[in-house]
Design goal:
- By secondary structure, the chain is mainly alpha-helical.
- It has a domain of about 90 residues.
- The chain is about 80% helix and about 0% strand.
- α2 packs antiparallel against α3.
- The radius of gyration is 28 Å and the shape is rod-shaped.
């Protein structure tokens, strides 16, 4: 009975120790995920900005071409929809870009801190200073 309790206690302690260790693969996967998020946000923001700019130029061009008369309604609607589409892409891209970049920086900083904490006792002897 005592041996069974000892085995269970050691198994629980082993699980706890393994659960608390920080794995560099976890950090690597998180950095890759947030890098992709940042890249997608950047692409959406650039495409949205270009689309908004082109739609705006075409919208004002149609009004300048038809200064004496009323411009065709279908072209006006098309160019206004292009501008709104560009704004929509930017509205999605900017938060993805900023969140991805911020999270990536935080993950890199945390990974460096975990690696620094592990270096102090890598050879069995070390000094840790805590504030």
């Amino acid at each position: 009975m005592k041996a069974l309790i000892l085995v269970l206690l050691l198994a629980i302690l082993t699980v706890i120790v393994n659960a608390q260790s920080e794995n560099s693969l976890i950090f690597g996967n998180a950095v890759v995920k947030y890098k992709k998020m940042e890249r997608v946000g950047t692409v959406l923001t650039v495409i949205g900005g270009v689309t908004f700019f082109v739609g705006n130029i075409m919208y004002w061009k149609i009004f300048n071409d038809y200064s004496n008369s009323e411009p065709p309604e279908d072209k006006v609607n098309t160019y206004s929809h292009v501008m709104l589409g560009g704004l929509g892409l930017m509205a999605v891209g900017i938060p993805l870009w900023t969140i991805g970049r911020t999270k990536e920086r935080h993950i890199k900083i945390e990974a460096e801190l975990v690696r620094f904490k592990g270096l102090s006792s890598a050879n069995g002897i070390g000094i840790k200073i805590r504030f």
